[in-house]
Each structure stands twice: as structure tokens, then as C-alpha cells.
Design a protein that fits this description.
Blueprint: E1 6-10, E2 25-26, E3 29-30, H1 32-43, E4 49-52, H2 62-69, E5 77-81, H3 84-87, H4 111-122, E6 129-136, H5 147-160, E7 167-171, H6 179-187, E8 191-196, H7 203-207, E9 218-223, H8 231-238, H9 249-265, E10 272-278, H10 279-282, H11 285-300
Parallel strand pairs: 4-5, 5-6, 6-7, 7-8, 8-9, 9-10
Antiparallel strand pairs: 1-4, 1-10, 2-3
Helix pairs in contact: 5-6, 9-11
Length: 302
């Protein structure tokens, strides 16, 4: 798990306290092994959810999931990114894909593989699975000539999946955010992940789209990058992520509005809201969360 890459807060307990991993110190320095062993335990004392990005790179193993779950209280929830073996249509030209780089993925949207290699291990900690996110990188015309073709494949895929899991979709083709896409997700009770990313409309704009709330049980958002900013640019500008470099008022307000909306929906006992913030949004995810919750407090006080 890449802890700290995406931090989260769940609307059932909208609060924030700064946490420093003192337990990892040894003779005045941070002990890497101790940090990796204990950091989730301390993180879970403050937050109620975390995005597990590591699941995107390799299918999860039951024993690893149980180890993670064992470090958290009973009401803690994990957000899992589905492994790219399911969500990538053509493998990118990256070293980690070796001979597969540039090749079509024969397991793209393979429902049987997803159920066996992803859901089956998660079954061991099912009570702590808050959201299962299918992150689809931007598709190009060589992948899909028309957005409707992707939606047709997505419709068939979700029609084959086991029911009862908190599925959500994050897409990065802004022109595909239209009625047909939202209707497909709603048909299967799958949430649209409101996402702040370089080539997407802002979360505020996505929230304003008709029928963008596609699940009666789940709201989810990931604030990764400011629209228009490339990943490498954010890394160069913000690392080592120790302070806020740039205030994104629109993103903060959108996140706060989703949290407030989720709190109002808590009258429906099955509805939960998950907000994940990346360091590369403003420079420090913890400080961004603190600012968002201050906006929430102001909004609730009106």
C-alpha cells in the first residue's frame, strides 16, 4: 500500500487532528521498517478511510489484506483501486510492463478474472471494504472510436459482476461524461467518482452535471491534480509535500459540498461519502483536508 499518496475522510466523522508518526522514531531518526509496520495503525487513529493505490499494480493477497485490516478499528474502511490488469485496454510503454508494453490487454474488463483475483481475496475483509474503484486512464481513438463503445463494454462487464460490492468508476475522458455514461452506472448501482485531474472538468463542474449521482449508497471523489496541471509539473512544484504551495479554493469548496451533501444523506443509513486528497493537489494533503473541514464547519453553521 502507498500510504500517504491519498488520504481520506469519511463523512460519518468529519474531523481532523494532525498526526506525526512518533512510534517510527529510533535514536532520533525514522526507522523505515518500523514506519512501514506501524504507520497505518496511527493513521487509523485519526482517519476513517484510506485509498490503497498498491492494489492498482498487483492483485491483492488475502494475507496482506488481513494484515492491513488488523491494524485498523472495526469502523475503518479501505478504498481499493482495481488492478490495472482489468482496467487497462492497451499496456502503456512503461518499463514495468516489459514485453507487454504497447500490446492489447486480453484481460481488459475480464469479469471472471476480477472476481477470482480481486474480489475473492477482499472477501476476507469485506466489512472493511468501503469502495472498489475502477480507474480508467484516458482512452485514445485507437482504443475506442466512440465513447458509446466503451459504455457498452462497461455495461456488459458490470452485468456479469457479483452484486453487493461498493463499485465506483473513475473515467478520464471528459467528453464521455454524458447521460449515456451516467445511466449505465445508475443501472448497476455503481458510483461515478468525481475526480480532479489534469484533463477533466473540475469536480464542481462534474457535480453540476445532471444525474451524476449514480449510486443510492455511495458518493466518492478523488482530488488528484488541479485541472490543466500535469502530474510531473505537480511533483516538481510541490515535493517534498511538507506545506501548502497553492490554494485551490474551488476544489476545497467542491469537496466540502460533497461532504455536506453526504451528511444530509446520512438519513439514508446505507449512504456513505468518501473523499480522497492527494499531496499533488495543493502540496500537502493533510493541510488540504484541514482546510476543507473548516469550510464544512462554516457551511453547516449557516
Amino acid at each position: 500500500m502507498i500510504l500517504g499518496r491519498s488520504f481520506g475522510t469519511q463523512t460519518t466523522k468529519p474531523r481532523f487532528f494532525p498526526a506525526i508518526n512518533r512510534r517510527a522514531e529510533f535514536r532520533g531518526k525514522i526507522a523505515k521498517t518500523r514506519f512501514e509496520r506501524d504507520c497505518l495503525n496511527e493513521y487509523a487513529e485519526v482517519f476513517k478511510t484510506v485509498s490503497v493505490d498498491a492494489a492498482y499494480y498487483v492483485f491483492p493477497k488475502k494475507e496482506n489484506l488481513q494484515r492491513l485490516a488488523g491494524q485498523t478499528p472495526d469502523d475503518f474502511k479501505f478504498g481499493f483501486k482495481v488492478t490495472d490488469a482489468i482496467t487497462v485496454k492497451r499496456f502503456p510503454n512503461l518499463p514495468r510492463f516489459a514485453a507487454r508494453a504497447g500490446q492489447l490487454n486480453s484481460d481488459f474488463l475480464n469479469a471472471d478474472l476480477f472476481a477470482a483475483a480481486f474480489l475473492a481475496p477482499c472477501e476476507a475483509i469485506r466489512s472493511k471494504v468501503g469502495v472498489v474503484m475502477f480507474e480508467f486512464s484516458r482512452f485514445w481513438p485507437s482504443d475506442y472510436e466512440h465513447g458509446r463503445d466503451f459504455i457498452a463494454d462497461l455495461d456488459a462487464f458490470f452485468g456479469k459482476l457479483p452484486k453487493g460490492w461498493p463499485y465506483a468508476v473513475e473515467t478520464r475522458n471528459q467528453k464521455w461524461l454524458h447521460q449515456e455514461y451516467f445511466s449505465c452506472l445508475a443501472r448497476h448501482g455503481v458510483a461515478h467518482v468525481f475526480n480532479s485531474w489534469q484533463a477533466m472538468p473540475s469536480v464542481k463542474e462534474q457535480m453540476a452535471m445532471p444525474d451524476s449521482r449514480t449510486s443510492p449508497e455511495l458518493l466518492a471523489a478523488r482530488f488528484l491534480l488541479a485541472p490543466g496541471r500535469k502530474y510531473n509539473e505537480a511533483v516538481e512544484a510541490f515535493q517534498p509535500y511538507e506545506r501548502t504551495h497553492e490554494i485551490n479554493e474551488e476544489a476545497r469548496r467542491a469537496a466540502a459540498d460533497l461532504i455536506i451533501e453526504g451528511l444530509h444523506l446520512l438519513y439514508e443509513p446505507r449512504t456513505k461519502t468518501y473523499i480522497y486528497i492527494n499531496n499533488r493537489l495543493e502540496g500537502n494533503a493533510l493541510l488540504t483536508l484541514q482546510a476543507i473541514l473548516a469550510v464544512v464547519g462554516t457551511g453547516l453553521g449557516r
